[in-house]
UniProtKB/TrEMBL annotation, chain A:
Protein family per UniProt: Belongs to the binding-protein-dependent transport system permease family. HisMQ subfamily.
Keyword Transport: yes
Molecular function in Gene Ontology: transmembrane transporter activity
Keywords for the protein's UniProt record, in alphabetical order: Amino-acid transport, Cell membrane, Membrane, Transmembrane, Transmembrane helix, Transport
TM ranges: 21-45, 74-96, 117-135, 147-166, 240-261
Gene3D superfamilies hit by this protein: MetI-like
Location of the ABC transmembrane type-1 domain: 72-265
Organism expressing this protein natively: Ruegeria intermedia
Protein name: Amino acid ABC transporter membrane protein, PAAT family
Keyword Transmembrane recorded: yes
GO cellular component: ATP-binding cassette (ABC) transporter complex
Record's subcellular location: Cell inner membrane; Cell membrane
Membrane topology category: Multi-pass membrane protein
Biological processes annotated in GO: amino acid transport
Automatic annotation (TrEMBL), chain B:
UniProt domain ABC transporter: residue ranges: 4-238
GO MF annotation list: ABC-type amino acid transporter activity; ATP binding; ATP hydrolysis activity
UniProt protein name: Amino acid ABC transporter ATP-binding protein, PAAT family
Family of this protein: Belongs to the ABC transporter superfamily.
Main location: membrane
Keyword Nucleus included in the entry's annotation: no
Pfam hit, one: ABC_tran
Organism: Ruegeria intermedia
Bilayer topology term: Peripheral membrane protein
Highest taxon listed in the record's lineage: Bacteria
GO cellular component: plasma membrane
Amino acid sequence: MTRNRTAGPTRRELFETQQRWRSIRIAATSTVLVVVALIVLVPLAPGWAKVQQSFFNGEVLVKTFPKLLEAFKINVMIFAWSAPAIAVLGLLIALARDTKSPALFPLRIFGAAFTDIFRGVPVILTVYLIGFGIPGLGLTRPWNSPYIWGSLALILTYSAYVAEIFRSGIDSVHHSQRAAALSLGLTEGQVMRDVVLPQAVRNVVPSQMNMLIALQKDVSLLSFIGPVEIFRQAGVFKSLLANFTPYVGAAIIFLIVTIPATRYADHLMAKQMRERR
Amino acid sequence: MSKLNLRNVVKRFGDRTVCDGIDLTVDEGQMVCLIGASGAGKSTVLRCINLLEPIEDGEILLDGVDISVPGLDPQSVRARIGIVFQSFNLFPHMTALDNVMLAPRRVRGRTRAELLPQIEEMFERFGLADRMLNYPDQLSGGQQQRVAIVRALAMQPEVMLFDEITSALDPQLVGEVLDVLLMLKQQGMTMVMATHEMGFARQAADKVCFLQNGRIVEEGPPEQLFDHPRQDATRQFLARALK
């Protein structure tokens, strides 16, 4: 009954190969057309020479790029200490909102208010209010550092979003899992820790990856309260050289980090979809 | 004194009465099979006994002690009553071994090392010796269901409840799971089982109860209930079920 595989491709395989090549030819042709159109048409715009000079100036790019890269280290640093704090705080808020005990009612209220407030206020406003407001209480060095309070603003805002994602993850674990764990005599807390949370966290990894990518970009908002990170550094160069190319350089640096991260998040998401069928 | 005693148990979901005054007595070492159409209340009875569903009225006695008292700490009761579900409900992020060890470790405070010899022996007895380190999605339905039974047994329960545990299995896998139940019966386990496997109920049960609309319409030893049912409803159900 099994077909002899050495007999060559089947009719359907031949047809599909043919179709595949046809798709590739069409895609290649249309891509080439679009790219050629861009290369030919954009420089025909009346302001192109000026734009090229002030945004895509190779000389400026080469001169400023190393310094921008240097400044980007500050972004990475702020990101590196904020991200773990966000993960922990976000999880705690999610758990606080899902508690049942009447004694913890204040905690539930707090959790709900926290997410409402920090998701409702623009990040930049939170950064301003906390970044300028708290040191304004008369704190002395090092406690008046914008790094501390700026990071806190990011941590609070992002924890609110991350907490909601964790909660959706907790809801996504089928209730029969809880029933099975409870029926074995586990307490509610043990059920959460050993059975529900591990599955919930796994379910939301792709979504949380997207939050990380967003955070990486929003670190730049701290430039408004002091730290000379990449965006601020690019601004300094812009003033110095009267040229916008450093902003393009900064954008390139961000993309170098965010594009692989985005691809990876998409890959995780697609993998999860496949596993769930 | 009987091991398990249900007296006039009433369970409602909203305005739907799922258990409408269930009376049931299970003696030590007995196997009781609950039969009846889907929605008759078989599963709900089991979930109520395990305190997964609070009951509206009546009482449930385990060794003569009322375990359905509102406000009673359910954990200690559940640790004494094992339940196996239709859909296995293994924890997908743990190996078969960890699935089984979780409750004894957390609830009884035992260590892995203490548990291992005894659990290994159970896996072996149930033909799962080479499956201990597999994850649930690497096991067949029959294997998963046997792991679920081992998981419940590892708490050394006094009563085991089985909720249509073969309904989600391919026909050729049903036998291996039912064999495990026969083994447990020989060891003297007290068991209550909701099932559609009439042949098995006739062969293995000490008592069969036919449920309809949340009531036990008729109960008796399998020979009597299957061969000489007294109620019309039982006769009609069996005529359809055994067709």
